[in-house]
Amino acid sequence: MAVVTVHLFSASALSVVRTDGQGFSSGVNPAQNPYTNGNAYSWNTPSDLAITLPTTTVSLTYQDSNASLDGVDPSATQVSDQLLAAPITVGGTNYVPNGSEFRWQGTTFVSNHSEVTLYAADGTEYRMVSVTVTAGYNTPSVVGVFFEGPQPPAGATLYYRQGQSTFQQDGTQTAVPCFLAGTLIDTPEGSRAVEDLRVGDLVLTLDSGPQPVRWIGRSQVDGTGDLAPLCFRAGTIGNTRDLHVSPNHRILVRSSQAELLFGSSEVLVAAKFLMDGVNVTRAPRPVADYLHLMLDHHELIFSEGAPTETLFAGPMALQALPEAARAELLAIFPRIDAIGHQLARADLTRQEARMLGAVPAVVHEFADNNAKHA
User: Fold this and answer.
1) Residue 260 Rama label (left phi>0; alpha psi -120 to 50; beta)
2) Is residue 290 a contact partner of residue 178, using CB atoms and an 8 Å limit?
3) 217: closest CA among 231, 245, 197, 241?
4) Which CA distances in Å does 305 have to 64, 180, 187?
5) pLDDT of residue 121
6) Which residues 6+ apart lie within 8 Å of 79 measured at CB?
7) Alpha carbon 284 to chain centroid distance?
8) Please, are residues 160 and 52 in contact by the beta-carbon 8 Å criterion?
9) Does residue 360 register a pLDDT over 50?
10) How far apart are CA 309 and CA 178, in angstroms?
């Protein structure tokens, strides 16, 4: 197992301010208490942020088996990967490795808490990773951040831009799952382009038959970066034509391997976790014209003939919506926060999706199984 060292900017030394001059609702700088405003650093609040880095870093060293800092299941009793490999003092707290893999023995491990895309004033893009350190069963603490890819200079000020920056926590990006305009959706009267649907129109669902569309959202975003559409080539997952969706759009997977690993032959997997560079690829464009559909319940509908999800109104999805869209949705579903929406199927994290095996082989199994169930 390799030993990896990353250079952290201490979270407590970051300056995070809203560019509109207003303070955070809690009155606490989210860099010092990232859980106060919902998610780390309040990336999901409807405001732009300016983040100024400190001028010094501290080295964090840990064991790693796959050269990728992943999230760790918070309920795990044993952690064998991403164990702290050397003592570190950050934010005034000392963390030391103890050689154990068992949390009841106080093992100390590091984890990817979240990732966010930030921009310099000149438009240069940076990918910032927030890191937690957990000792035993203590609450994880976001101790600092480092950068994947291009490195900003120490002391730089970077910007989170609503509608352009993307945020990902524990393998789940907060950008709302969407269909690219032009995608054909199955209805009782035949296939219709998603942009031609109207509230009240019926669409075919896998579990509940024809169901009315209750809300339609639409947004145009930069289609060249992290929000670029992903393309499933025709036939890859039982789709009759090329299917274009946003990276976080969940796809229904039918797989015998899923049954073996997760107790169900049907699971949901984010499109980005299925990319193989051949059958599932990025399809960037200057502007991505996205639409999202919401029904009374989270459902699986047929897009280009393949079962994919409708909008799931969980807390992160609601916060990721633009303020006007969220207000419109709340006017239609006044008690949406209390409804307790359920996903149509269990969804997999990035790490769980990897457990399904080689993506190209699994994708072809999806296609075969989806075709059998069509």
Assistant:
1) alpha
2) yes
3) 197
4) 40, 15, 11
5) 93
6) 72, 101, 103, 107, 109
7) 18
8) no
9) no
10) 9
The answer to whether the beta carbons of residues 42 and 169 sit under 8 Å apart is: no
The values of phi and psi at residue 260, to 5°, are -65, -40
Q: List, in order of start, the domains of the chain with CATH numbers.
A: 2-169 (no CATH), 179-356 (2.170.16.10)
Neighbours of 335 (CB within 10 A): 8
The strand pairing partners of 128, in sequence order, are: 116, 147
What DSSP designation does 84 have?
B
Q: Which amino acid is at 270?
A: A
Distances 122 to 118, 156, 158, 226, 367 between C-alpha atoms, Å:
12, 12, 10, 18, 44
Measure the CA–CA gap between 192 and 77, rounded to whole angstroms. 49
Tokens coding 145: 């951040």
Which residue, among 306, 321, 105, 94, has the nearest Cα to 206 in the 3D structure? 306
Instruction: Assess contact for 243 and 306: CB atoms under 8 A.
Output: yes
Question: What is the token pair recorded at 372?
Answer: 């059998």
pTM of whole model > 0.90?
A: no
Mean pLDDT (whole number) for 266-289: 88
CB 48 within 8 A of CB 19: yes
Spatial CA neighbour of 314 closest among 300, 298, 301, 290: 298
Residues 6+ apart with CB under 8 A from 20: 47, 48
Q: What is the pLDDT of residues 99-154, one digit of tens each?
A: 888 888 889 999 887 778 889 999 899 988 888 898 888 877 788 999 988 899 98
Say how many C-beta atoms besides its own lie within 10 A of residue 275's C-beta: 18
The residue among 92, 116, 97, 119 whose CA lies nearest residue 108 is 97
